[in-house]
Design brief:
The chain is mainly alpha-helical. Helix content is 65%, strand content 4%. The two termini are 37 Å apart.
Amino acid sequence: MTSQLSQELRRMRDLSGKSLKELERHTHTSDSSLSRYFSGRLLPPWPVVAALCKVVRRDPREVLPMWEAARNRASGKTGRSDLPRDVADFTGREAELAELAELLETPSPAITVIDGMAGVGKTALAVHAAHRLAAQYPDGQLYIDLHGYTPGHDPLEPGTALRMMLTALGLPSSAIPQTLEERAGLWRAELTARRAIVVLDNAADEAQVRTLLPGRTSSLFLVTSRRRLAGLDGVPPLSLDLPPDSEARELFTRIAGAARCSAEPEAVSEVLARCGYLPLAVRLAATRLRHRPTWRVADLAEQLGEQQAGLGGTFELSLTQFSPAQRRVFRLLGLIRAGDFDAYAAAAVAGCPLAEVRDLLEELVDAHLLQQPRAGRYQFHDLLRQHARQTVPAEDRPESLTRMYDYYLHCAMTAANVLGIVGRAGEPGLRVPAYTPDLSTPAGVTGWFDAELGGLAELIRSAGEEGRDAHAWQLARALTRHFFIRTNNREWVTIGQLGLAAARRAGDTEAAAGLLGGLGYAYAELGQHTEARQHAEAALALATEDVARADLYCLLGALLARLGQFGPAEAKFREGLRLHRSMSAREPRTVWCEISLGRLLTTTGAWDEARAILQMALQSTREHRDPFAETMCLNALGELYLALGLLAEARHQFGSALTLSRTVSHRTEEPVAVNGLANVARRTGSAAEAIDLHEQAMELVHLCGSERRKATIMNDYAESCLAAGRPEEAVVVHREALDLSRRRNDQYEEARSLVRLGSATGDQPLADEGTRLFTLLGVPAG
């Protein structure tokens, strides 16, 4: 959004004199969305802007030019197309295309479900229609395979689908909320200001699709499924039957050549019959004939007869244009259970040179045996994947699967080492793949993780089904650091549970302990403290290695600290630190425990010890070249210096943390740094600057998908409102912080809210309640 529009929106907010919660009621928009609009990170729908104008009694027409200019810029940035390549020889279906075109005349949103049997051409029709209509939808054309009927692949969870589509709209993964409801709300909000085409391909049922459909939008949604989704109220179906003989014949003729077909009409009829009139089979057979200029149509019919009848025979005939070695690679690609894949994964499973595999992948796309959903990524049609998997020679299967799982595990472990040390290394014997993507930088690592995340759970599940539990738990464990940095906590729980089940089947108690600990952290980030503590304590009961037990004591300390149990938390941190320091060599992960203890000591007022511990930790993070831990340590030092009143030092630490967090995409620490700078600004008399920084911090907290620090920032924000002479807004924000801290059982921030509310409203009993809570916690009033 342009700074001019966001500044105007903030001015209207200030003129209204209302809190975010009050404006939420007037605009029918969540307070988190309003925060994004005011900070300039998201373009608001026009109805929201008009509602704000109404609140301050302003003519919306004065603001419309600014909003339209911002919208045009946003459309220019996000008008991407993820559509698969259109079929050049698409034939027939004119009645269906006309029916889809009529959707443009219906009230928004325009949605239809294209249903029909496998191979009948549902995806081809949806993609062809989307390409034809693309010019009328300038804000983008999105495509996602929901894997409703993909062999060996579970249907895509709605939450995962929403994450993928929000990413396609240009939102960073850190901007995507954790819960299904929040993701669906953000998806609808993003679409209100856009005119786009969205193709939801291969849907399993109504439940999978329902949360993916929009509210008010000018966009067009095309859904395909093998089932009639009659449970989607108000969504018209478009059922595809087999094409009539005339259309099937036209398709075959356009591909194979008119002269040959007109000379042998009976043979064409025989070929069509052997293909069952399915467009997929007809296309493959005709493509095969086109590449055999010496064949007659009757020769093709004979070949199909010699192969087994039906689709399998058609697929096999299409593969005869390739060498035996290439056909072998095609079959092995069917073993990849990660949805779509790149050339590196293909080279690993095939055991072939990367350049050869890249050439073959493109040839398979040209022969309609593979699809290319986006540049550099490949996927099968469901029927072709099933055929490829079923025809892998038995003697090739074990070795190819080993190469595939070794490849993904090696990439995950290499990436984890770039992000920082995470628990046990892989088992001896893991082979290094001949070819891997560039995973030497944080940017390369996060790019790989974001591209592969949609298929990693299925890959781990398939490893377990193949009896490769060691690969399954190691892969889940290696992904822990990715989740810690990227905050995909729902996906973390899913993958952690799969890994835990595999570790238990393998009888590896240390692996199970590590995965239980990771799940404990994921549940803590989601605010599910009971589950978090249960998993952490179960992990501690299993762990026997000192380094694992040290990590788990630190995790328990963090959980107790979040619940305001500072004395027990300190004991856990110190026990973890004792174990870490008892080892012969200083563990890189020791600093995580030191930083956590240092932050706790800052809260409890033990500032001298906190300073010594944090300075030692900062030196270690730099020695071990761990920028993520360094960011945390810089923020912890900033908080300490702020408590000591050393404002220049605090500003320096927070500024350094902000720069580093943005460099390495540490989304969970970035808002801490921004909020710290806001507190420094308030303490140095710049209340207006502080408020602006607090708003940025609030937006960043929302974007990183974690509410853990939200109450802290809200209480700090309210203090800056008081300093700026906005006591009414301060009271409202403190009350919101109080509600949130009680929901999350955050007693420290609850005490802060009570004391500040009592002071701001003159309610002494309320302030006394907060003071008593601080006393119970054993910490000075914050």
